[in-house]
Each structure stands twice: as C-alpha cells, then as structure tokens.
Amino acid sequence: MSSNVAGVAVHLTDLTRVYGQTKALDGLTLHIAPGELVALLGPSGCGKTTALRILAGLDEATSGTVSVGGRDISRVPANKRDMGMVFQAYSLFPHLTVLENVAFGLKMRGEGKGERTSRAIDMLDLVGLSAHAGKYAGELSGGQQQRVALARALAIQPRVLLLDEPLSALDAKVRVQLRDEIRRLQLEIGTTTLFVTHDQEEALAVADRVGVMNQGRLEQLAAPADLYANPATPFVADFVGLNNKVPAQVSGGQAQLLGTAVPTLQGSVTSGAGLAMVRPEAVMVTADPAGTSTVSSVAFLGPISRLYVAMPDGSVISAQTAGSAARAFSPGDPVTVGLEPGGVLVVSDGSPA
After folding, report:
1. Residue of 122, 180, 185, 174 lying closest to 144 (CA atoms)
2. Which of 35, 34, 27 has its CA nearest to residue 70?
3. Distances in Å between the alpha carbon of 277 and those of 32, 57, 77, 98, 230?
4. Measured between alpha carbons, how far is 49 from 47 in angstroms, rounded to an integer?
C-alpha cells in the first residue's frame, strides 16, 4: 500500500531556544529534503528533542523560523501543523481498542466512520497487527504497542513524521526489529521524517543523513557512512563509533603512527604531536614472534571479535576482526600492530605547544 502523501521540505533556520540561563538551541539550521529521514543524534541535553518539539509546535523558539513545504509555520499551533508523532512512551488510550486508537486522529479530524475504519485497518496491515485490532493496549507487548503508536501517527497521512526516542523503552531484539520496520515503512510511504535518538547504531541504521548535536549546535550533518569515516570534529569522532587514541606526529597533511603514514582529515591539528582517533576496524594485528606488542585479551562478539593489544609504551589498543580470525590469537601472543590506509582525525594531545 502506498500513500498519496508526497514528502515535503522542512527548514529549521537559525533556531535558538533559551530557558533562563540555558541555551538549549544555539543557532540550529537544518534542512530536510522531501521524503528524507534525518536522525538527530547526541547525548542528553544536547538540544535534539527541543528541536523536534519546536518543529511539532509543542515548544516555541526564542528566535528563528520553521517552514514546511515552503510555508512559515513558526506561529501555527501544534494541532494545525499536520504532523504525526511517536514518543518513547507509547501513549495509547487504555480504554480504546487497537483499531480505535489508530483511528483516533482521523476521528479528531472529522473523518466518517467508514473511512476511519478502512484507513486504520490499512495501517494495522502495514505494521503487521491486523489480527490484534480488537485488543486493548494492556494486552499487547511493548513492541506491539509502539507499532500501534506508529500506525496511529501514519493514519492521518501526516506531512511530517516526528519520532522522539521511539525505541528506547524496548528490549534490544525488539528495538532492532522495529527500527528496521520504521525504515521500511518510511521508504514505502515517503513521509519526510525527523528521528531523534541518543543511540548511534540506531541513527546510522535508519537515516539518510545523521546530524550530530552538541550543546545546542549541529556539529556535523552527513550520510551515515561519511559521518563514520570522516568525522568533522573531535566530538563527532568520539560520539560516533569506538576510537583508539593513538599518539601521532603530523606534518604536511600526513600523520605518522604505528609505523605508517596516513592522510589527516579536515579539522586535524596541522603540525606536531597529537592523538589520532583510530577505529578498531582500521587496526591490523599480525602474529609475529618478534613483535613488540602483546595480545592482552580477546572478546568474542559473535560474527566479529575484538582484540585488545598492549603496546610497547604500555597503552592498550583495540582491533576488530572476524570472529573466525580471532581464534588464532591468545593472550600473551607477540604481535605487530599496523594500520589500514585511510584518513584519520588527529586532535590535540592537550600538551602545551
């Protein structure tokens, strides 16, 4: 089933939000293309939920504008903004059946009973819950309740879908299933979507582009693979993915580390000593009887494994490898550590210049 809702462009322009002495948003500009899913990612208190609430009309910006489909809606009340919302709490009405919950927004909009029921059934079909139409929220699991909340948000054929930490109350396996489901539905229906989360894996898995926020500002907005491989700031590098911090010497756009020269990414220190942010999957560990490094431990994580290696200077570096390859290593084994070619972000090591 496809909806007749065409995606619309969303523009948040130079938004600030001040509460007393706190600047929750500090000049946020974010443009979402029609039909795009953008995830805002960041730690608690970074401003991502404030941005979503201002777009929804549940909060008002101190300054800046919100426009949807080319129209400034900064002063339009929430109930006239035509947006579907799914929160962390499922917020279903306990006295209504699943079907009535999904049809609720349509009832508020004055749709006739036949149209309401037909659309609600379509939406329950879409989220795989048709068989539960006559049940009450209390009879459903958390994952099912969140599917109902999603069906309810989509039933009104919103111009924009807003998802505020929709999966964080669910257990890990259900979270992954529902995350994939949300992406499938969003692609199928084509609704412009803003997804707020503090979970980097979630953001990278579902979004067309991920915006990393820190202290009310957007540090970087990029496609998931680009964000992961080319973090623009030390904060982004630290927040997205695991990192080893490896001493490096920088000159002429190159970093020397682990016996290898690799290019530095934009935003790196330009010369002298620094710390390179190195992903575990870029570290190569080779068995070597004459090696000066030693395997400390091996962590098996299913299809992948992580090797922890003690370096000659006493620091420990982690490397990621296929689970099968890790069986060749045991604690105490002498090894040589190298680096795959690719750019690294080198940050200041904090020592005076």
Report:
1. 174
2. 34
3. 30, 39, 45, 48, 11
4. 6
Exposed / middle / buried, residue 353 (Cβ in 10 Å: 0-12, 13-18, 19+): exposed
Q: How many CA atoms lie within 13 A of 114 on its CB side?
A: 0
- Predicted local distance difference test score (pLDDT) of residue 248: 93
- Which amino acid, one-letter code, is at 58? L
Q: What is d(CA 191, CA 182) in angstroms, rounded to the nearest whole number? A: 11
Contacts of 24 (CB under 8 A, 6+ apart): 17, 18, 47, 50, 216
Whether the CB-CB separation of 174 and 18 falls below 8 Å is answered with no
Q: Which of 182, 157, 163 is nearest to 106 (CA)?
A: 157
Beta strands in 279-322 (DSSP E): 283-287, 293-301, 304-310, 316-322
Of 295, 330, 307, the C-alpha closest to 244 is 307
Q: Where are any strands of DSSP class E within 147-216?
A: 160-164, 192-197, 209-214
Give which of 128, 244, 251 is closest to 181, Cα–Cα.
Answer: 128
Which residues of the chain register pLDDT less than 50? 1-4, 352-353
Q: Burial letters for 239-250: b for 16+ Cβ neighbours within 10 Å, e otherwise?
A: bbbebbbbbbeb
- The owner of tokens 């111009």 is 159
Structural domains in the chain, CATH included, are 10-233 (3.40.50.300), 242-347 (2.40.50.100)
Give the tokens for residue 330: 């045991």
Beta-strand ranges (E) seen in the chain are 10-19, 22-32, 37-41, 63-68, 71-72, 83-86, 160-164, 192-197, 209-214, 217-222, 244-251, 254-257, 260-263, 272-278, 283-287, 293-301, 304-310, 316-322, 334-339, 345-347
- How high is the pLDDT of residue 177? 87
* Neighbouring residues of 71: CB distance < 8 A, sequence distance ≥ 6: none
pTM of the entire predicted model: 0.84
Q: How many residues does the chain have?
A: 353
Q: How far apart are CA 41 and CA 54, in angstroms?
A: 16
